[in-house]
Design brief:
There is one protein chain. By secondary structure, the chain is an alpha/beta fold. It is built from twelve helices and twelve strands. Helix content is about 35%, strand content about 15%. The chain has a twelve-stranded mixed sheet, with helices on both faces. The protein has two domains: about 200 residues, Isopropylmalate Dehydrogenase (3-Layer(aba) Sandwich); about 140 residues, Isopropylmalate Dehydrogenase (3-Layer(aba) Sandwich), CATH 3.40.718.10.
Length: about 350
């Protein structure tokens, strides 16, 4: 298997990136929490598309029932909504909703900081359900970081919030799509802060988490990881920066001695070419905009954000709230479908471990 293997998220399972999954797996259906995200965004609209497919799972949408019903019925008038009960069951062609009340009525496309606490309450309910075993995993629709911060809650993203909520010292963001898996050593940091953040302990722990989850959640017995350098030309022997010499290479050497298959540090501009990508199963980029533009070019609208290192399963769409599309019926559910599909496969893989 190579990271360049192409597949369609919408028409076939993710067998290319998740080799041990098969449709003949256990018939016991996992229960997944689907958070509906920012109420002014497209999250509630995307949830309306879920009943279009038959899923090998029970999908429970978390959010304000009345708001979700209004948004959904604007584009899917005949869609039935049923209330979630832990001891209940899904119904074909219906949307199952766990009600979390809004603080204030929400209108499509109109952000309101008053509802920021509602957005976090939805996340908290899903996290609690995953930690207790009520849910096998969670899939998150997009939230709006800015409006949550305006409400007085420091919020840099789902990834960091989930880490704090689960008391996880370090998590790793990885996006999957377009035949690629791209993980990040740092996430939502200003570019000027990235070099200081990439330390030997951080890089060591990040690679160990990535290696472990590629084995345990993606079924790769001996994953091959391509590691990008930080500087242009991977520092060019120290002439364009010394982080490769002082930090990255010593970490890679130490982990290779433990048995990991690591290639790098590689110049980012030549890492993302077919010949190099064929040598690996995943890429570790040093910062957000080093790796994600390439992946999103290859898969936008069908990519998945996966949080590695957590004690729970979490996948997400790879896009934002798209306020201009909210309530129009034009939002494309491809990334949500892909995120649900991958979460199901990860949950089934875990249940057989």
């Amino acid at each position: 298997m190579t990271v360049r293997r192409a597949y369609s998220f919408l028409s076939s399972p993710l067998v290319g990136l998740f080799p041990f999954f098969s449709p003949q797996m256990s018939s016991q259906l996992p229960v997944l929490a689907i958070t509906s995200g920012e109420p002014a965004g497209i999250g509630p609209d995307l949830c309306a598309a879920l009943p279009r497919r038959e899923w090998p799972a029970r999908l429970v949408v978390l959010g304000d029932r009345d708001m979700i019903a209004a948004r959904i019925h604007a584009v899917e008038p005949s869609l039935d909504i049923i209330d979630y009960r832990p001891d209940g069951a899904s119904r074909e062609g219906a949307l199952e909703v766990l009600n979390v009340p809004l603080a204030m009525p929400a209108a499509p496309g109109r952000l309101d900081a008053i509802n920021a606490r509602y957005v976090l309450a939805v996340l908290d309910r899903a996290i609690d359900g995953c930690k207790s075993g009520e849910f096998a995993g969670m899939v998150t629709a997009p939230v709006h970081k800015g409006i949550i911060c305006e409400a007085g809650v420091p919020f840099s993203g789902h990834t960091e919030y989930l880490a704090e909520a689960t008391a996880t010292p370090l998590v790793v963001m990885m996006l999957v799509g377009g035949g690629l898996r791209v993980a990040l050593a740092t996430t939502h940091l200003p570019l000027k802060d990235v070099p200081a953040a990439i330390t030997r302990p951080l890089l060591t722990d990040t690679l160990r988490i990535l290696h472990k989850d590629l084995r345990e959640r993606f079924g790769l017995a001996s994953p091959r990881i391509l590691v990008a350098g930080l500087n242009p030309h991977a520092g060019e022997g120290g002439h364009m920066g010394t982080e490769e010499i002082e930090v990255i290479t010593p970490v890679l050497d130490a982990l290779r001695a433990e048995g990991m298959q690591l290639v790098g540090p590689l110049p980012a501009d030549t890492l993302f070419v077919p010949h190099t990508l064929e040598q690996g199963d995943a890429v570790l980029a040093m910062y957000h905009d080093q790796g994600l533009p390439v992946l999103k070019h290859a898969s936008f609208g069908g990519g998945v954000n996966v949080t590695l290192g957590l004690p729970i399963i979490r996948t997400s769409v790879d896009h934002g709230t798209a306020l201009d599309l909210a309530g129009t019926g034009r939002a494309e559910p491809g990334s949500l479908f892909a995120a649900v599909e991958l979460a199901i496969q990860m949950a089934k893989g875990r249940s057989q471990a």
